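chain below, 345 aa
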Amino acid sequence: MTKHELTISSLETGELGVLHLRRYWSKRLLEVEGRLDQDSVRHEYGLDFTLMQGLGLGIVEPPEYLFNRRPSYAEFEHWIVQKRGGAPEPALLQRLNRMVRHYLEQPPRTYPVDDAIVQEPVLSAEDLAFWQKNGYVVLRNAVCAEDCREAEAAIWDFLGMDPQNPESWYNGNHTFWVSLFQHPILNKNRAALRIRKAFEQLWGTGDLWATVDRSSLNRPERDGIDISGPSRLHWDVSLALPIPFGVQGLLYLSDTRAEQGAFRCVPGFHHRIDQWLAELAAEQHPREQDLESLGPVAVTGSAGDFVLWHHALPHGSGRNLADYPRVVQYIKLFPHDYGIHPVWR
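prediction:
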């Protein structure tokens, strides 16, 4: 099948006036049909991602909608307005379009910006030293307990489960992820000032965008069967070198003990991942190695605690051997030009 290079410019707009949106729509439709020249647009992955997150769309919603519906551009814009509950307000539209122009016209920055001064920091010198050594850190009391309880209740309600009735946890098709995106309390947590300040400190910039990511409900094992989701250690970033700096995060919505499926990671692995990859034989795929042998640790927390980790750390949830689910909300803030490796390994 003939591959097509795009002729639609990022500067073309439609009724909403959002730069790059028409080009994004065209790319996804060509991709669905297997007619997109992927090599010609690899440098736009970061721009695509930032634009969709900046519009407040769920992290998997736009590609799923375009794949399933194949809409006209006018229909795509209308869908965005419906998902958002309105068109982008003027201030957001201006920021989005400024971001697109900057992405197209300026080279990416190098992160973290070590000499940046962040006003009202929330991570102490000891926290930052721990981060530098281990590649993760816990921001205690990032969100108030009341907001955590409200967010957890929204997730239980979305799943149609009763937190007081364990039998209800195992009905239906729920596995691990919770695809609830546009909800007032989840949006409030994404905008939590302490969480934003922590990301600003680690990135060294205040010009950050928040992901509209999933949540998860990690249920206890039942009848000796592990149903606790992706407990296998993994990475969410390409392992092609060089791996750009990146920070991920999750908010504990419920108190979580080590045996309750707590977040796990391999401390300090971001310092030695390059050497570890170099020592693998050509036939050894890094994602298929025994990552448990690297020494993961469980990171416990109370409701409202926020875990940040360097995305070069192998990580995953633990097996839930307790009597109550682990409930978390995933939140990540990032600069639009932080860099996404064009090759997936």
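The mean pLDDT is 93. The chain has two domains: 21-105, 125-334.
thats it, cya
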